[in-house]
Structures are given as C-alpha cells and as structure tokens.
Design brief:
By secondary structure, the chain is mainly α. It has helices at 14-26, 28-33, 44-59, 77-91, 98-113.
C-alpha cells in the first residue's frame, strides 16, 4: 500500500468527449442487447447514457457512483442524465450550457439508436 498513488482526475475537451461518444455510438447495438433484462427501467436510451457515463468516467479517472432508483420515474434516463451532466461539469475543460448539453446528449442518443 505504500506505493499506491491515486490516479489524478483528467480534464477532457469537447472533441475528446465526442470521441468517447462516437465509441458508444459505434457499439450501441451491443450496449442495448447486453443491458440487464431484469432491470425494467433500463430502456435503450438509459443504456446509452449509462455507457457514455461509464466510458467518460473511466477516461477521466472519476468513479461512477451509484444512482438512485426513483420510483416515480419510468426509466433511469432522468437520473443518468443528471449524473452525466454532473460528471461533465467536473471534467470538461469548458463548461457546456444546459442547452448545449441537451443538444449533445440528444444527438448522441439519436445517432446511437439509428445504428
């Protein structure tokens, strides 16, 4: 344990975020097929957002923490969207406005689901 050095959180640019998103989009079919069939709230959109969250978290050395299962929400999408926004606010070298974030995420989801 003496030699353990924690990884430093990494900042990324918007173009690096787009590269991560492109990888998620490329693997969208597999991501959707491999989602947990017992998790009824993990719809296709939620699965894409979760994978984007996990890949971004891994790339930036930030732990992706658990997310709440809110009974009133029919899917995990809303909670995962907020978790991803919080992560991006922390790791992007320039902040995205709420509108830019919504446009980015909608674009990624549309492109992924049209694969």
């Amino acid at each position: 344990m003496e030699n353990y050095k924690p990884k430093v959180n990494i900042k990324i640019s918007f173009s690096e975020l787009n590269a991560i998103a492109d990888t998620v989009i490329k693997h969208a079919r597999v991501i959707v097929i491999q989602r947990d069939p017992r998790d009824t709230k993990m719809d296709e959109r939620s699965a894409i957002i979760l994978k984007l969250l996990l890949r971004t978290s891994e790339k930036t050395h930030n732990l992706a923490s658990a997310y709440p299962n809110i009974k009133e929400h029919p899917t995990h999408e809303k909670v995962l969207t907020l978790k991803l926004k919080q992560l991006l606010d922390k790791v992007l070298d320039s902040l995205l406005s709420d509108d830019d974030y919504a446009n980015f995420l909608n674009n990624v989801i549309q492109r992924a689901l049209n694969q």
